[in-house]
Specification:
The protein is of the alpha+beta class. The chain has 5 helices and 6 strands; from the N terminus they run αααααββββββ.
Amino acid sequence: MSERPRGANGTGESPTGRLRQCASDEAGHHRLPTKGCALPAYGSGSPHRVRSRFSRLGAASALTSAAVACTMLAPAAASPAQAATHSAKALRIAASKKGAPYQYGAVGPHRFDCSGLTLYAFGRAGKQLPRTADAQFRSARRISAAERAPGDLVFFHSAGHVYHVGIYAGQGKIWHSPKSGSVVRLEKIWTEAVRYGRVG
């Protein structure tokens, strides 16, 4: 049996052919040369050091790409000024519905129940609220009575259950849709069993 001629590196092919194969792999698949490939020297340093340098560059590139993607996908939080603008607009919209009849389950634009009025007002102002008074209470940011401002939500509760909601108008009053047979109106808060929330 005749022996196959060996190249200068004793592998049966020339170093030039192996470099050509590595270049083909990189161009076709964008991957680093594998163990069997002969790497050209960049300045001083062994092939292992060059591969390590490539690996570090690849990892840094991946981390940079991930950071950019997260920045693009992360929603921007509303600033206090934006939140105040939404609340002020919602208050004006609620006040504009003065005299609209109460109807259980109604969310406007001509009839409302209590949480239907707050849902409608904030929706028109660009902020989405849950449907019920209790769910709106859970979604709002808690604030104290000393922190309350026009446009904040006022929640009426009994035995740990939120049963009514209105929009604070200032001077201890709220705009709300009270009950069957009544209409949307401005009214003084009649109890101390209330909690306050701010739509962010």
